């Protein structure tokens, strides 16, 4: 990362330390915003393409080569649309809600180590921070549903609250199972541990169970089908964002896809070694870490899309039964199993 | 802390919500006024009339040949069977013997229509419970049937292929081959329906034990078709009052006793197999002969009342004609299956959740123009 | 133990479902059933019985087969067909004979029921396989089927 270093030095030589660091932060924020926008847009395109391939269709293929500019065109359309508002909406909360959702998604993005050096924010409570920040987004959804003054939106928001609070437990516990092996919450250190084999290999059976639970709970936390009760278009029309239009709707829409990316990225980092290449084949070229990280993330994203385009939606009470009667007890058992395994030294290490 | 003031503050309140007329799950312009307590449904009030075109009144204006094409617009997913119902009524009134060939062709096309309607229903059923992919798989198979129809009678949805006395024109030379191709194709795809949706644990849990309709209620509400048969009410017109060529083919009436949404779902899936077997029995044995029996250009029914019922994809369609001997009916009335099936929605959906209501409504397989006419 | 059995069967049923969609995903290239409409215009061929709109074929001498008997007008349930006709003296026989002036067809009111074409005794009107009927102004949907200056084909009687 020589470029970043030279930019850093150039900035600090140009202006006083205080201004320089602020400018640097702004630069980093802009870079992350760009990643955010591009990732969001192309994930939407990927979702549409994958859905089409599952459904015997072709998917968007008119705008640009192979439809690559389709989502850009959609974004342009959304920007130019009128922002409508209901008369009896709580205007302040109504306008605040989309930012809540999008900022929490953006903050979570800053934690991931794309390569060894490409990481904006490496704090020692990394995973804890991720879980905490990714569940703030639900407040935005609740606000949106409440402030729209629409009954459909309200039902959607209430469902979202129930759903996120329940599934937060499973996400946390399944990650905690893995933390037992790493002994650290810091993301860079978690990856460091995996140089002796990815955690899903090191922890074999309990790690695999933890991964399955994490994937289910993660899908539920991002409100994607089969857990998309919040939007549930055949029941609630559009759920919490019924009354949103234009760019504000786009924020919700993008945040959903960024959240999916975040869940997949957590799984890739914690279970599949993040930027580490399989068997260390490209360890000499650190920049390829981005490739490996994205490849692993995309595979998990594909799995989530596969779920979405295959399964029917759960009902709200079944959603809670799944969490409290199946995932949570299994998770606790799994945690004990993992603790015993770590204690007895049964993990596999290369 | 148990003061009355505090309890009043936390009193839960029922509220009303409009599901429709523009709502993805009502499949048309049906408005349901729901009274809900949280997620639990307390009352469902269907509100009709958004697509009323007074077809019955228009029938009084038209000649008997012209009436047939209006029935295309009632239950558009089984338009051929609607046509057949009117034609059968007129033929019965005239005591006209139609050629065997007409009867067989009518039966084959009616069963193809039933499969087309059920595949569309299956796709939409999946979509209503959130599995969006089923929609496209269902439409893929329906498309082949539509091609058969288009080649033979020129239209894909509003066929108007029957005329009183027979068929408008003979079947296309490709008809038999295409139908056989379709049967071969559909026999490989129908098991996939089960693998993808019917066997799915989420789907089964969603459908089991909700929207239960007992046999007694099914009879007293006038339920018919798959809705009635899923409750154990043997109501298949094709068996009890055979018309066209149904008395010469062997098929089973699918009966289930559970009466819940899953039973209604399974009845329709199994019915597609039965329809396939009916078509297979007939497709090689279409008798030669005329494709219509001669009628007068101006058909005048003898004065009197005539009633004929047929089994459409949704249930029992009854056609009532009151004639005074002129070239128009004095009064015409359709007993549509959707109307009576909708009437029991309040009975079976109360107590369920919003998601249950959507699933229950999907298995009633409502076509709104059929209800409003 | 039924608890774990339930989980096992649940996962199995989910995986079966995923295998179905997964199979289609792998064959997505050749399995797609989409018809890319404006591009496939050249190859898109409708069936010969397809009901697009009613037309009146004319031969090279600008002659049609419509005798003006108005059977189609009577058969039409919606009044989509209007025939403006006159009686003219036939120069050969000297008898007065119906001759159409305009055969007006309202495509916007037509329900494609095919009753007029069945009713026509001389096969003067037939279905065209044209399906791109959208226009910006609905008055353009009212068409005069007989071409200007056309006349009845000799020898056609009803």
TrEMBL record, chain A:
Query: Where would you find the membrane-spanning parts of this chain?
Result: 21-43, 92-113, 125-146, 167-185, 197-217, 249-273, 285-307, 328-348
Subcellular compartments: Cell membrane; Membrane
Recorded GO cellular component terms are:
plasma membrane
Q: Name one GO biological process term.
A: aerobic respiration
- Keyword Oxidoreductase set for record: yes
Which domain of life does the UniProt lineage start with?
A: Bacteria
Tell me which UniProt keywords the record has, alphabetically: Cell membrane, Membrane, NAD, Oxidoreductase, Quinone, Translocase, Transmembrane, Transmembrane helix, Ubiquinone
- GO molecular function annotation: NADH dehydrogenase activity; oxidoreductase activity, acting on NAD(P)H, quinone or similar compound as acceptor; quinone binding
| Main enzyme class | translocase
Q: What is its EC number?
A: 7.1.1.-
User: What's this protein's function?
Assistant: NDH-1 shuttles electrons from NADH, via FMN and iron-sulfur (Fe-S) centers, to quinones in the respiratory chain. The immediate electron acceptor for the enzyme in this species is believed to be ubiquinone. Couples the redox reaction to proton translocation (for every two electrons transferred, four hydrogen ions are translocated across the cytoplasmic membrane), and thus conserves the redox energy in a proton gradient. This subunit may bind ubiquinone.
Name the family: Belongs to the complex I subunit 1 family.
The protein's name in its UniProt record: NADH-quinone oxidoreductase subunit H
Q: Which organism is it from?
A: Flavobacterium cellulosilyticum
> Highest lineage ranks of the organism?
Bacteria, Pseudomonadati, Bacteroidota, Flavobacteriia, Flavobacteriales
TrEMBL record, chain B:
MF terms in GO: NAD binding; NADH dehydrogenase (quinone) (non-electrogenic) activity; quinone binding
UniProt keyword terms in alphabetical order? Cell membrane, Membrane, NAD, Oxidoreductase, Quinone, Translocase, Transport
InterPro entries from the xrefs? Answer: NADH_Q_OxRdtase_suD (IPR001135), NDH1_su_D/H (IPR022885), NiFe-Hase_large (IPR029014)
* Cell location: Cell membrane
Catalyzed chemical reaction(s) = a quinone + NADH + 5 H(+)(in) = a quinol + NAD(+) + 4 H(+)(out)
GO cellular component terms attached to this protein's record: plasma membrane
Its EC number(s): 7.1.1.-
Report the SUPFAM superfamilies cross-referenced here.
Answer: HydB/Nqo4-like (SSF56762)
What is this entry's stated membrane topology? Peripheral membrane protein
Catalytic EC class: translocase
Residue stretches making up the NADH-quinone oxidoreductase subunit D domain = 128-296, 297-373
Q: How does it assemble?
A: NDH-1 is composed of 14 different subunits. Subunits NuoB, C, D, E, F, and G constitute the peripheral sector of the complex.
The similarity comment for this entry is: Belongs to the complex I 49 kDa subunit family.
Q: What does this protein do?
A: NDH-1 shuttles electrons from NADH, via FMN and iron-sulfur (Fe-S) centers, to quinones in the respiratory chain. The immediate electron acceptor for the enzyme in this species is believed to be a menaquinone. Couples the redox reaction to proton translocation (for every two electrons transferred, four hydrogen ions are translocated across the cytoplasmic membrane), and thus conserves the redox energy in a proton gradient.
Report what the protein is called. NADH-quinone oxidoreductase subunit D
The organism named in the record is Flavobacterium cellulosilyticum
Classification lineage: Bacteria, Pseudomonadati, Bacteroidota, Flavobacteriia, Flavobacteriales
Automatic annotation (TrEMBL), chain C:
Q: Gene3D superfamilies, from UniProt? A: 3.30.70.3270
Q: Where is the 4Fe-4S ferredoxin-type domain?
A: 57-86, 101-130
Q: Which GO terms describe its molecular function?
A: 4 iron, 4 sulfur cluster binding; metal ion binding; oxidoreductase activity, acting on NAD(P)H; quinone binding
Sorted UniProt keywords: 4Fe-4S, Cell membrane, Iron, Iron-sulfur, Membrane, Metal-binding, NAD, Quinone, Repeat, Translocase, Ubiquinone
What is the top-level taxon of the source organism? Answer: Bacteria
Q: Which GO terms describe its cellular component?
A: membrane
Write down the Pfam families for this protein, in alphabetical order. Fer4_7
SUPFAM superfamilies associated with the record: 4Fe-4S ferredoxins (SSF54862)
What protein does this entry describe?
4Fe-4S dicluster domain-containing protein
Whose protein is this, by species?
Answer: Flavobacterium cellulosilyticum
